[in-house]
Specification:
This protein has 784 residues and is an alpha+beta fold. 39% of the residues lie in helices and 13% in strands. Helix 9 packs parallel to helix 11 (389-400), helix 15 crosses helix 26 (741-750) and helix 16 (476-486) packs across helix 17 (504-524).
């Protein structure tokens, strides 16, 4: 061991004490001394005051350094636990020794957290676009196409609900104002609204050549949409085919027949391309499909095979309302008008009741009928009342939808708590955190009622509510939002692989397989570890054919058992993930390896050094096309790239039997696939089966990784070093419940970061000439 003078040295974001002589404060024969000796033997060769590898020196470090710099020691513990250190090529202790060392460090860090707890702070949190749409759905019973109303949100750490990147711009503010006006008109049923045009596109590819689930039997291709018709009125429908608004029959014959239904009932139309029918207000299901003459008339098969197909339905536009007769009876009107004034004297009390009901749900706290908030709402009601009672409600509703208390999740500081002191959040705040975590939406009436009674924070009540909410259909948000982003599934929407076997129907089947698998774990109380080696999946005929699995017929997705030797077991064999971790024209062992390390093991993977070429272009003087592995190995020969690639590439090579869209293959570039390599710790790999077994042997790392991501998603902020003790508690507590997905969710909800927060330092006092801010909420109720 190097002997240097005692001094204090900077190490990354923290400080390490460097003392003269060997490690102090721990007998070499003690358990703690044995762990420090491991650090000295395997780590100080690089992490010393001369080399400073990674900005870290462990020269002569003392045991109390853990409590002095928990931020840096959390990084050390993670590197050890995930096998990232020591690096490939360096002497390594046995894996059991590494696990003991990381456990020793983590135990010390957990003890330090208990002495100085820090559940973290809460930032001002704007609703993201998905949450906004869900809130409108639950508040007004109205589904809106939010992508046409609001701009896309930024994302950080893989999620689009991170508070620190959900900023505000003048454009966004204007979008909120415009959206509030449109939504309030549609929800109330404003008879003055002008006709609007809604456009829908049919799924492309092979789906237009066969029957589509949800369309009438005896049809092929087509489109099915659920559209909210704002008024009882006529609407004009235009059906496009083959990229235009015309249909061509065989050999110049009559155009093919189409089948039109409204809520499952046939609709007779004179012209299949353009027709106008009267539709009642509210959400209605419309289907447009071709009568399946391709299979019943051999003559039609001739023109059906000649490109381009001009009889495939590829789009639908709906324009209206036209010649409206009234607002109708819609779910949104029933949600809004909880009372009906019978005369003018009843209007004000009824308006106050309606707006108090809407504002309480929208602002996530009970609003009294005589509060300042209600006074402001009633001013807007009065401003619109000249157009009638419903017009006044519409105007006030628009005001609710642009209020900061609606658009933001506000958790005000507590003036009675000193800065730096942790405290429990209110039950109203807990209800809001819980509902946005599990439903990506506002609390329902039961949650708000429990919060008002100050019962929600009680452990038994809280556990019961979590289980109730997970059983609710709104918990599908955990699949679409959390799993969709954690597994990078959303990226499949934008994937454009250069492969003729890929089309939109396959894309949708890929995404559905992964979503349905995750949802089944949520509902069946299966251990999340089984996600690595699940003995079933969900397939339709299109995806089963892609996988080479026989016996699956039809377009609907169904559960299919998988044998023990199937390469499709678990997440590693799913085409959705294999496609989003490929480049547009080839597989990418690097992307797949990085995905496994980051997503499944929670191990950080550094970005490539600046200026490093990473596109793996073909070598010009090669006598034959090179496989992806051969090209990557030439790239990997760069010393600045080798260290990271030695960790990621072997994992990616083991998955090379899957092509860029997840089909099984045995050759690449005319050469047999080579999946043999070894991981950074020396573990041999030969194919995806070996990789699956390795991951199962690291199941604790996988459970830790998904727990971290769940906690991060639930808090809507980046995890910090002081959150790691809570993560370890979630993992430990889940073991008694077989590490099910529900047990991890419960662990997140029970955790200190979810139920507590730290008081922030007071903001500097403003001078007299600075504008005043809005008043802080008092007694849990927002002030105007």
């Amino acid at each position: 061991m190097r002997r240097i003078a005692a001094t204090t040295m900077v190490a990354g974001a923290g400080l390490f004490l460097v003392a003269a002589g060997p490690v102090l404060g721990a007998s070499p024969s003690s358990p703690a001394g044995a762990q420090w000796n491991l650090l000295d033997r395997y780590c100080t060769e690089c992490h010393n005051s001369v080399d400073w590898s990674g900005g870290l020196s462990l020269d002569g470090v003392q045991p109390d350094a853990i409590t002095a710099d928990p931020q840096s020691w959390e990084k050390v513990a993670r590197k050890m636990r995930t096998g990232m250190m020591p690096p490939p090529g360096k002497p390594r202790p046995a894996r059991a020794q590494l696990q003991q060392l990381s456990h020793f460090l983590e135990t010390r860090l957990d003890d330090q957290w208990k002495q100085q707890p820090n559940p973290g702070a809460k930032s001002l949190h704007r609703l993201n676009r998905t949450e906004y749409a869900n809130v409108i759905r639950d508040l007004l019973s109205l589904d809106v196409e939010v992508t046409t109303l609001l701009p896309a949100d930024d994302a950080a750490e893989g999620f689009d609900n991170m508070a620190d990147v959900l900023g505000v711009s003048p454009t966004l503010i204007q979008s909120y104002v415009s959206a509030a006006m449109k939504i309030s008109r549609a929800a109330v049923g404003d008879p003055r609204m002008a006709p609007v045009l809604a456009k829908f596109s049919a799924p492309g590819g092979a789906s237009q050549r066969g029957h589509i689930e949800g369309l009438p039997l005896g049809t092929r291709g087509g489109i099915r949409v659920v559209h909210n018709f704002p008024l009882d009125a006529e609407y004009e429908f235009r059906v496009s085919a083959g990229g235009g608004f015309r249909f061509a029959g065989p050999a110049g014959g009559p155009p093919p027949r189409i089948d039109v239904t409204l809520n499952g009932q046939p609709v007779t139309v004179a012209d299949p391309r353009k027709f106008r029918i009267r539709v009642p207000a509210g959400p209605q299901t419309v289907t447009i499909a071709m009568v399946d003459q391709l299979r019943s008339d051999g003559v039609d098969d001739l023109y059906g095979l000649s490109p381009p197909r001009r009889d495939d339905v590829d789009g639908l536009t709906i324009q209206g309302p036209l010649d409206a007769t009234g607002p109708g009876d819609t779910p949104s009107r029933r949600a809004i008008f909880i009372c009906r004034p019978q005369n003018s004297s009843e209007e004000l009390p009824c308006a106050r009741k309606i707006l108090a009901h809407l504002a309480s749900a929208a602002f996530r706290v009970d609003i009294a009928g005589d509060s300042p908030v209600m006074q402001k709402m009633m001013e807007f009601y009065a401003a619109g009342r000249d157009g009638g009672f419903e017009a006044g409600i519409q105007q006030a509703l628009a005001r609710v939808l642009v209020d900061p208390r609606f658009l933001y999740r506000i958790e005000p500081d507590r003036p009675d708590v000193a800065p730096g002191v942790e405290y429990r959040i209110t039950d109203n705040e807990l209800a809001s955190r819980l509902s946005f975590f599990l439903w990506s939406s506002i609390p329902d009436a039961r949650l708000r009622q429990l919060a008002q009674r100050s019962q929600l924070h009680q452990p038994q009540v809280l556990d019961q509510e979590v289980r109730r909410m997970l059983a609710d259909p709104r918990a599908s948000a955990l699949t679409t939002n959390f799993a969709g982003q954690w597994l990078h599934l959303r990226e499949l929407d934008n994937a454009q692989p250069l492969d003729r076997g890929f089309d939109d129907s396959l894309r949708e089947a890929m995404a559905s397989e992964t979503r349905m698998l995750f949802a089944s774990f949520l509902h069946e109380n299966r251990s999340v570890v089984d996600l690595l080696d699940c003995d079933y999946t969900f397939l339709n005929e299109r995806l089963a054919r892609h996988y080479g699995i026989e016996g699956v017929r039809g377009t609907y997705m169904r559960r299919v058992s998988l044998p023990k030797d199937s390469p499709r077991r678990g997440l590693l064999g799913q085409a959705s993930i294999l496609t989003v971790t490929s480049a547009g024209n080839r597989t990418s062992p690097v992307m797949r390896g990085a995905w496994v390390m980051q997503t499944l093991l929670g191990a950080p993977v550094p970005q490539p050094p600046p200026g490093v070429e990473a596109d793996l272009k073909e070598v010009v003087d090669s006598p034959r096309p090179l496989s992806v592995r051969e090209r990557l190995e030439k790239h990997r020969s760069n010393p600045s790239c080798a260290a990271c690639h030695q960790i990621m590439d072997p994992i990616g090579y083991s998955m090379e039997n899957f092509d860029l869209i997840g089909r099984w293959r045995d050759t690449d570039g005319g050469m047999p696939i080579n999946t043999h390599d070894q991981m950074g710790d020396g573990t041999p790999l030969s194919g995806v089966g070996d990789l699956r077994r390795v991951l199962l042997s690291h199941s604790d790392d996988f459970v830790t990784s998904i727990s971290e991501r769940l906690l991060q998603y639930a808090l809507g902020r980046r995890l910090e070093y002081y959150d790691q003790p809570a993560v370890r508690r979630i993992v430990a507590d889940s073991r008694s419940e077989h590490q099910t997905l529900a047990s991890l969710v419960l662990g997140v909800v029970r955790s200190a970061p979810f139920q507590m927060r730290v008081q922030q330092p007071a903001a500097p006092a403003k001078s007299a000439d600075q504008p005043k801010t809005a008043a802080q909420p008092k007694n849990g109720e927002p002030q105007s």
